[in-house]
User: Fold this.
Amino acid sequence: MTTTTDGIHHITAFVNDVQETVDFYAGVLGLRLVKKTINFDAPEIYHLYFGNETGEPGTIITFFPQENARQGILGGGQVGVTVYAIPPGSLFFWRDRLKKYEVKSMDTVRFGEDYVRFTDPSGLLIDLVERDEGMGNTWSFGGISQKYAIKGFGGALLFSRASSKTALVLENVLGLERIAEEDGLIRYKSHGDRGNVIDLNVENMESGLGGAGTVHHIAWRVQDDDEQLLLHNLLDAIGFQPTPIVNRQYFKAVYFREGGGILFEIATDPPGFATDEPEESLGEKLMLPDWYESERSVIESLLPPFEIRSLE
Assistant:
């Protein structure tokens, strides 16, 4: 039995300094901070969500910033490269913008597409690629007009310790279609129009080490609770030992580690980020789940302050 996903729901990563991270993703890349909350399992650490204007699935990158965190090592069992889609004709703008902010970049090509590659301040690898599909971003910040604004995810490059096992999950569980293979990579595509192009290494890779500058997990979209439960039961039946369904306030989540070592999540599209604050003020206030609200003053005293600021 095969289910299908529209593609990436969100990607979550470990980073270092919170202000440095906010300056980069909001100030340099022009993404919107759509949710300022905490790691529900470690409330002394922020959980920050960046995306398009309303934080739609397929646009969200999330971070656990922790100063002086152990530096991770990129390798097998991880998302190797996070790929963002930008409007056609905007690579020239982004090359200039990265140079302006002294972000070193390089050009690369995969499957006939031109990419600009760079790293964030913690070392996360990022690619920008021009794509026609997918709606534009209506959010404009830091001197980036909607004409050039990042649309959301283009996809990801997965680094697997057991490529054939990862391929089986992508194809036979998530329903991605294998569409090409070249230069040691397999390309998959989902039927969605964001976060829908996934590349996978053919040769197995040595294990990486989690820490700052690495991705913690990649989440795949499902439309609702029923579809998530169906997929949970399938994963359980074929031996992946998925976690129970967890309420993350803005979506429900199920986690499992696929055979190549990458932590996968299945996340529901609803309810979204406007469930506890208005769309016009997303990300402005620290939002806590009900069970932490009585500890707000203590939690706020533990979290380092930061601000969203234009770097222009």
